[in-house]
Amino acid sequence: MNEQDILELTAESSDRLDKMLARQLGDRFSRSFLRGLIDAGQVTVNGLPAKASAAMRGGEQIQVHLPRKSETVEPEAIPLTVLYEDVHLAVIDKPAGMTAHPGVHDEKGTLVAALLHRWPQVAQMNVTAKRAGIVHRLDRDTSGVMVVALTDLARRQLMAQFARPAGAQSVEKVYLALLEKTPPSAAGRVDAPLARDPADDRRMRVYVGGDPAVTEYRVLETFAGGQALVQVNLLTGRTHQVRVHMAHLGCPLVGDKVYGWADGLPLERHFLHAASLRFDHPATGERLTFESPLPATLLNLVERLRRSS
Asked: What single string gives the DSSP state of each residue in 241-283?
């Protein structure tokens, strides 16, 4: 039998078992995943397996048996758009929809799996297999330029560059974002610390006691519907930084289903693209710059807005 982790819960109210689990654990697992555990007999109520429709009255002791995730990653033959490569590193143009490394909800189709297939040597790095080659991340639905390490020495050196504050010898990251609303000024700076939202650990929030986060933006173009195409420069690299800072301005990203507007422009992904990345080569010290054009989906939306303006 595979090793398992066990979550112990107390039914908090009267409801069906599946609905109660979705409410209490929905921030960590999908409904379909939880339903699969119930159907497989991996959820017990007061020590006995129960059906999804079992009625909870409140106070029942529930155990959820989770299969322990393997620390190994299977290589996958996933096509990559490679902008540059040498023995030390590679620069790719990541598509939207690809997660950087495996997590609770994304075990397959990750960038790490693609790296292990194309460059098997990254498996030898002194790091957990799920982080092999990764020195920075883009959100799943953010496209654009990423650098990955092909040796452990390059990984450590690149990670040190990303950790430095903005300035000389640091990494420069430039994004393009389409906002639902034009910012109050043509150019600006958002200096607002970020922390995990205690009500939902998948979200970030502006919080006085959080990690320092600084974003600069410049409006490139505005449209008749009030939207704005902006260039964003990150001076720090916090999780969801651009998305949270723009929402903090009252100008969330188009298509952002977490921080955006429910009645905003329809888009299957959020409109955020890593357009440019500049860093020092970890072996030669040469300053390198790589760029990625807007993907067709995003460019087509901009063109439609232009025709409507």
From this structure: HHHHHHHHTT-PBTT-TTTS-TTS---SS--EEEEEEEEE-TT
What is the spatial distance between Cα 59 and Cα 46, in angstroms, rounded to a whole number? 10
pLDDT tens track for 208-249: 988 999 999 999 999 999 999 999 999 988 889 999 999 999
* Residues with a known catalytic role: 139
**What is the DSSP code (8-state) at residue 297?**
H
Main-chain dihedrals φ then ψ at residue 166, nearest 5 degrees: -55, 140
Nearest-angstrom CA–CA distance, 204 and 168: 28
Q: How far apart are CA 272 and CA 275, in angstroms?
A: 9
In the predicted model, is pLDDT for residue 309 greater than 60? yes
Place of tokens 């958002």: 190
Give me the chain's average pLDDT, please.
Answer: 89
Strand partners for 48: 45
**Residue 140, class by beta-carbon neighbours within 10 Å (0-12 exposed, 13-18 middle, 19+ buried)?**
middle
Round to whole Å and give the CA distance between 133 and 119.
Answer: 9
Range among 46-60, 82-96, 148-162 with highest mean pLDDT value: 82-96
CA 44 – CA 62 distance, rounded (Å): 6
Q: Is 206 helix (H, G, I), strand (E, B) or coil?
A: strand
Match 């939202």 to its residue by tokens: 197
Burial class (CB within 10 angstroms; exposed 0-12, middle 13-18, buried 19+) of 249: middle
**The model's pTM:** 0.76
HSE at residue 254, side-chain half, CA atoms within 13 A, is 24
- Selection from 270, 301, 261 nearest residue 309 by Cα: 301
